[in-house]
Write a structure and sequence with these properties.
Blueprint lengths: L2 E6 L3 H4 L5 H16 L4 E6 L28 E4 L8 H9 L4 E7 L1 H14 L3 E10 L14 H11 L4 E3 L1 H8 L1
Parallel strand pairs: 1-2, 1-4, 2-3, 4-5, 5-6
GO molecular function, one term: hydrolase activity
Keywords: Hydrolase
Protein name: Nicotinamidase-related amidase
Length: 176
């Protein structure tokens, strides 16, 4: 079964907002596993020039740049939470006969969630790697004391029975 990795929104405008070094390190470890196996990787960049209050905007183009070395992997832009809002993503995946999509990146409760749901709806097998996701939001953002955003969203997706949710160690054990 052909596999691909979608890396969502690991951009300056996000990593500058809080300490996301732990999820970024885990994202990099998943990327390394894919590169070692020569499995396709695509980077998605959230670009929305019209929303001046966007955390990625900052009136500085540098905040849109991906902080990881994308090497020769494609970088596609999107302006909505789902990576599939850019029709080039599905075309890229179909051209490579991708059947199984793995998702890592930011923000878990928006782009990761919507991309996972859309990928499943588009007919792909989907695995979200929970600890290789992150968010700049907190329990205070949602006024929900004790909320662990990654765990909450990961649990919902996992319980759906449609989307596999793993940790990096489980991914490595099962797929590499």
């Amino acid at each position: 079964m052909n596999k691909a990795l979608i890396v969502l929104d690991v951009q300056q405008g996000i990593v500058r907002l809080c300490d996301v070094s732990e999820p970024v390190a885990k994202i990099q470890s998943v990327i390394t596993e894919f590169e070692e196996r020569d499995w396709p990787i695509v980077y998605m960049k959230h670009v929305d020039y019209e929303q001046e209050d966007s955390s990625l905007y900052y009136k500085e183009r540098a905040n849109l740049e991906i902080v990881l070395d994308t090497k020769l992997h494609p970088v596609l832009e999107k302006s909505k939470p789902s990576a599939f809002s850019n029709s080039e993503l599905k075309k890229w995946m179909v051209e490579r006969h991708i059947e199984h999509v793995f998702i890592v990146g930011f923000n878990m409760e928006y782009c990761c969630l919507f991309t996972a749901i859309t990928a499943e709806h588009e007919g792909f097998q989907v695995t979200l790697i929970e600890d290789a996701t992150g968010t700049v939001n907190t329990e205070e953002t949602y006024e929900m004391k004790g909320l662990d955003i990654q765990d909450f969203v990961g649990s919902i997706l996992n319980w759906s029975g449609c989307i596999e949710v793993l940790y990096v160690d489980e991914f490595k054990e099962m797929y590499t």
